[in-house]
Write a structure and sequence with these properties.
With about 200 residues, the chain is mainly alpha-helical. About 65% of the residues lie in helices and about 10% in strands. The chain has a 3-stranded antiparallel sheet with strand order 1-2-3. The protein is globular and about 50 Å long.
């Protein structure tokens, strides 16, 4: 079963690498990042006129309320009152991810490109709020569980991290499978062919 899993991972990895040129990867990163950032900023602009604590409406059969929260900290209110510091940290993380993308441009798979783009879009989206307003506008509140109010940018960061981990898992499987091939695994025909070449 593990052999099948590694083989499938390697096939998926190679197909994703082969399907895009470095230029195509840059375009994909910019497109995903711009689209998610635009979505985040448009939704925030639409809700910016509502007062703190106001429930605008319910969506998804009442599972989520659109409730306005001005968050000066991070999730669960940690580091509250430090929006500029959190904004700087967000920008620094985005810069590191962008540097990693450039460093591994030829080898990075599409799933990790999407992950990096979503994290950058989410980080920049919330950083814009922190620098411009001193708080992040959160508005998605779950009614079925006690969970911090979040926004589209937060969804991007979370999904992006998941995609990055998936890409790392697939990459590990591919490396292990590739690294396991040694001269000891050469077939008899390969050895004969090499002997004929030597002659």
């Amino acid at each position: 079963m593990r052999t099948i899993q590694k083989f499938a991972s390697a096939v998926v990895m190679r197909s994703m690498l082969a399907s895009m040129s470095p230029k195509g990867k840059v375009v994909a990163l910019c497109a995903i990042c711009a689209a998610w950032l635009l979505l985040d900023q448009v939704v925030k602009a639409l809700l910016s006129g509502y007062a703190q604590g106001m429930v605008v409406c319910s969506i998804l059969f009442g599972l989520i309320d659109i409730r306005i929260v001005f968050n000066t900290g991070a999730a669960w209110g940690i580091f509250a009152g430090n929006p500029v510091l959190l904004g700087v940290v967000s920008v620094a993380v985005c810069a590191l991810l962008l540097a990693y993308f450039v460093w591994d441009l030829k080898g990075i798979p599409l799933v990790q490109i999407a992950g990096i783009a979503l994290v950058i879009a989410g980080g920049v989206g919330n950083a814009i709020d922190r620098f411009a307003q001193g708080y992040v506008l959160d508005y998605l509140s779950t009614t079925f569980m006690d969970f911090p109010v979040f926004n589209v940018a937060d969804i991007g960061v979370t999904c992006g991290i998941v995609l990055l981990l998936v890409g790392m898992f697939l990459g590990t499987g591919d490396v292990k499978r590739t690294g396991s091939k040694t001269p000891a695994h050469e077939t008899k025909d390969d050895a004969v062919a090499e002997g004929e070449d030597a002659l």
